[in-house]
Amino acid sequence: MSITFRRVLKWSGVTIAVLVLIAIGLGIYVYSIIPKPIGDKPTLQAELFNKPSTELPVAGKFIYKSAAELAAMIRNKQATSTEIVQEHINYIKNNNYKTNAFVWLFEQDALDAAKKADEKVARSEPLGLLHGVPVSIKEEFAVKGKPFTWNSEMFQGVVAPQNSGIVDAMINEGAIILGTTNVPKMLFDVQTFGEIYPTANNPYDLTRTPGGSTGGGAAGVALGFSPIAVGGDFGGSIRIPAANCGLYGLKTTDGSMTEFGGSPGGPGNPKYHRMMVTGPIARTVDDIDLAWNAMINKWPDQKAKMLEAKGELKDYKVAYLDEWKFGSDKIIVSKDIKDKLKAFVDVLGTNNVSVTNDQPADYDKMVAMHRMLAIYTMFEKVPWLLRQLVIRDFKKADNHRIDMSEVFDRMSDIDPAKYDDILKRHDALRDQLESFLTKYDFLILPVASTAAIKHNPEHTPISVDGTNVDYWDNFLYPVVFNATGHPALTVPLGLNSEGLPIAVQIVGPMNSERRLIKFAKLIEPLHEGFVKPKAS
């Protein structure tokens, strides 16, 4: 063997050894920055996820009653909270395995609270808006002493040290917390599946998703498990599940319930915590009204800012769109949604509502703004290398329909110095939409491109009337109003030919929840609304 060849072998060996050491070092570094699971996985309540061998007694006296009806029955001593709560508990145990809507049932706590509620009625003490009424809480919000995992192994052993603000708001008004409902891993999907809880199913078709991230809450309300679900919305997480399950769902004005209603908005600078709001899901507008008032009562200064409602249908002007256009492109919508929307606005027109086909400007800029604000909210404390991996995945899914170059730049470099400029542009977009809503009281438009989709854990493209659409493009209609902060109410319009719910969202000016709810009550007789799923 020549000296030259031996040298080549020697240096090749040295080079390979160095590369191996670098790879090992990089692997150790990556392992060190990946968050480690907190504690052990909780032991799930088997009775929630398995069909019971013998069904518990359910007379059906209270299931599918509205919260308003139940509250009146308790107040007027026509029923006790204890018997109402017990019937709902039995009904959940009999049926939850179909949809995996509830992930934790607080049976004894709920019955103890119901007993105290009944004692308060017996003593003729003042009662809250939801006194004795059973409600569910999205597992985004902390309930003291209960698992608080966000369906992620990272938080698998976390037990909430105290209630979230929104949980206290409901308890302050006398609500009985039945349990917490299913969410996707880290709340980050418009389906509901993760690492701890079984996948949630849509009650109208168990092969489909109820939506996300308040998917479990919506499925539970549609199946009669509770009249009200408390949800959170960062990009459609109340409105999409409400639409998929044929329900009303209210995304509230950004900032109207401070600190996201008590949901942890992510670590780091509170200045970056935006867009994530809380709100109710229900089968009736009256229950949305009741639940929203119960929530906002905890924040009276914000309640005082709310716009007054108008009295009659003839007083309202609305704009509508069925496919939002930007440049030479548009976000397509299925024919069944467009047909239901057109029939809906036609009925509004024949009932003295002024109806105009119109759309706000700069849709693409609002979508990009949502992504930019989300990055500062969620990724500020994420190590640079992990952000590069996220960027790689996002770029792989990017179809270049909307310019996301600045979004990728900010994800790579979360520069605090650039945030104030981003906020100025955010405020300009908000004000621009607010100006549009001086011409009209509301904007009516789709919630998503299609009805509830089949379970799709791989996020593969979705067929919309035979056209393949990238997964995330199906859910771009809600995010713009998280970006601008405007309130929006999902309104169910009945079922399509496949028996799946169809809905629209109605968007109002900032702080117009009271006006939105009033309008929804006025138009309630003009559309089909909630239809019970056959699975019930």
Sheet/helix structural class:
alpha/beta
Strand runs, count = 15
User: What fold name goes in the CATH topology slot of the largest domain?
Assistant: Amidase signature (AS) enzymes
* Helix percentage: 25-40%
Q: Please, what is the CATH homologous superfamily of the largest domain?
A: Amidase signature (AS) domain
Uncertain runs: 21-33
The radius of gyration is 25 Å
CATH class of the largest domain: Alpha Beta
Q: How many distinct domains?
A: 2
Major sheet, described briefly? 11 strands, mixed
What is the CATH architecture descriptor of the largest domain?
A: Alpha-Beta Complex
Strand order of the largest sheet: 1-3-2-4-6-5-14-15-11-7-10
The whole-number mean of residue pLDDT values reads 91
- How far is it from the N-terminal to the C-terminal residue, by CA? 82 Å
Principal-axis shape: globular
Count every helix, treating DSSP H or I runs of 4 or more residues as helices: 17
Kindly estimate the percentage of residues that lie in beta strands according to DSSP: 5-15%
Write a concise keyword list for the protein shown above.
536 residues, alpha/beta, Amidase signature (AS) enzymes, 15 strands, 40% helix, globular
Can you lay out the helices and strands and say which pair or pack?
Layout: H1 3-33, H2 46-49, H3 67-75, H4 81-99, E1 102-105, H5 107-122, E2 134-138, H6 165-172, E3 176-181, H7 215-222, E4 228-233, H8 239-244, E5 248-251, E6 277-282, H9 285-296, H10 300-303, E7 317-320, E8 324-326, E9 329-331, H11 335-350, E10 354-357, H12 363-379, H13 384-397, H14 405-412, H15 416-439, E11 442-446, E12 462-464, E13 467-469, H16 479-484, E14 488-495, E15 501-507, H17 513-523
Parallel strand pairs: 2-3, 2-4, 7-10, 7-11
Antiparallel strand pairs: 1-3, 4-6, 5-6, 5-14, 8-9, 11-15, 12-13, 14-15
Helix pairs in contact: 4-5, 6-9, 9-17, 12-14, 12-15
